[in-house]
């Protein structure tokens, strides 16, 4: 099986939104899942964080997470 997976090469795409009170561990849950990292001194997130991870289950490629939007909404001026 190929170890490299192109960004858009997947069988299933799950967009996951993680919400909850401040300081409950959302950012660390995300970093543990996507990078296997945990930080005791993580800063409070302002706004929204995006991350993705692609996993293989049986012969299927499953992408989970949410990619940062490519375009920002254009302002009129
Ligand atoms: N002991 C322990 N500490 C954790 C765990 N998960 C997160 N923390 C700690 O809790 C604090 C807050 O974690 P964050 O992941 O930044 O929490 P958050 O939900 O993203 O917070 P906001 O961004 O403010 O909404 C950090 O100091 C983490 O190190 C855990 O499973 N065990
Ligand atoms: Mg956070």
Automatic annotation (TrEMBL):
Gene3D superfamilies linked to this entry: P-loop containing nucleotide triphosphate hydrolases
Q: Where are the transmembrane segments?
A: none
Question: Its domain of life?
Answer: Eukaryota
Name assigned to this protein: Uncharacterized protein
């Amino acid at each position: 099986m190929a170890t490299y997976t192109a960004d858009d090469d997947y069988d299933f795409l799950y967009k996951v939104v993680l919400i909850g009170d401040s300081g409950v561990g959302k950012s660390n849950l995300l970093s543990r899942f996507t990078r296997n990292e945990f930080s005791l001194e993580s800063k409070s997130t302002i706004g929204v964080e995006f991350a993705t991870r692609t996993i293989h289950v049986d012969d299927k490629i499953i992408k989970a997470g949410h990619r940062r939007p490519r375009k920002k909404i254009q302002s009129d001026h």
